[in-house]
Amino acid sequence: MQPFALNYARPAAELEFDTPYAYDSGLQLNVLLDGRVAARDHALLRELATTTSTAGSKTHFDD
C-alpha cells in the first residue's frame, strides 16, 4: 500500500541564483566577499530577508 501523499508529492524546485555571501567555517558565519559578516549588512537583509547558511540545517540563521 502506498501512502496517499506520495501520489501527489513533487520535489521542491531548486532556485538558481548567486548569493553575495559565502559560509566561513572558521567564523561559522556567512561573510560577504569583502570579509564583512553578512548578517550585519542591512541592505542585504532588506533584500533577501535572511542569510540562511547551506552548511547545515536550513532552519539555522546567522543573526
Summary, kept brief:
Pfam families: Strep_pep. With 63 residues, the chain is α+β, with helices and mostly antiparallel strands.
**How many strands, what sense, and barrel or not for the largest sheet?**
2 strands, antiparallel
Structural class: alpha+beta
How are helices and strands ordered from N to C?
EEH
What is the residue-averaged pLDDT?
75
Gyration radius over CA: 16 Å
Note the gap between the termini: 45 Å
Report the portion of residues in β strands.
5-15%
- For the secondary structure, the number of strands is 2
How would you write the strand order of the largest sheet?
1-2
Can you put this structure into words, describing what you see?
There is one protein chain. The chain has about 60 residues and is α+β, with helices and mostly antiparallel strands. It contains one helix and two strands. It has one helix spanning about 40-50, and strands spanning about 20-25, 30. It has a two-stranded antiparallel ribbon with strand order 1-2. The longest helix is centred in the last third of the chain and has 7 residues, at about 40-50. The protein is elongated and about 55 Å long.
